[in-house]
Amino acid sequence: MNKEEVKNWLLNHRGYLKKSPYILSQRLNINDVQLCKSAIKEVKYSRILERPLKILIYDLEVSYNIVKSWRVGYQLNINPSDIIHERAIICVSYKWSGEDTIYNITWDKNQSDKFLLEQFIEVMNEADLIVAHNGDRFDLKWIKTRAIKHGLEMLIDYPQFDTLKVAKKKFLFNSNKLDYISEYLGFDNKIKTSMELWDDIILRKSQDAMSKMVEYCDKDVELLEKVYNKLVSWEKPKTHLGVLQGKTKQTSPITGSINIEYVKDVVTNQGTVKYIMKDLDTNRLFEMSATNYKKFIETNK
Fold first, then answer.
1. Which terminus of the chain is more solvent-facing, meaning fewer CB atoms within 10 Å of its CB: N or C?
2. What is the pTM of this model?
3. Beta bridge pairs of residue 132
4. Sign of the CA dihedral 253, 254, 256, 257?
5. How far apart are CA 37 and CA 147, in angstroms?
6. What are the tens digits of pLDDT across the range 35-78?
């Protein structure tokens, strides 16, 4: 591959802009590390990234631990040494925000999630923002837990919009479950299922049950995107699209545009002035520091 081909590849695999040129050269099977270094630099610092934010909507389903237990009941003491078979990721469903197609990956015939993770981590690395329900406390941590088990590399951190976290922080829903919030906002309900579905997959390796599980997971992703689109304007942007596009901080973090206007200024209890701005293309609000607001005014006189 020549430099232009590497640059075009990087535009569709943005996670590798944060990795070393050596790792990129290995991924693309290129011996010229310097070429990879130059390609990363040119893509990072050019305005070639004129594109929308790549938002990944995802959901995963996990198997249960199989353990030794002499009896049943509440308040049992089950030690890690009693685990016969560790839980793993059964399937993951995902889509790109604004697109119709929902993709899915399942564990292999031996119930190993290594291949699933190898594929999905590549997808995650392409995203500018990932979206999950309870992603901060469970999904992302569990993906990392399984990745380290298999010796797989991931980025240190991923900008994530957790719809559960935002629901708890900003609202007072009767329930913060995805199914309830979706119905409350006028959308569909989740597909009804039972623990028997997990039993059929984990204990009996039923392909029919796996198909139903994937359908269940796909539906969660569909509902999650709808809920995300409702909640997103109530939370501060998780990343700055303008900077990702190679522009200045005086652009909208939502669209990268300068089609923005002043709404009001606020002062924190520490005496810091912040300016509330509106992105006129989306009518969403965001904050701008006093320094960046001054530069914005000077630049756009």
1. C
2. 0.82
3. 162
4. negative
5. 26
6. 999 988 888 766 445 678 899 999 999 999 999 999 999 888 99
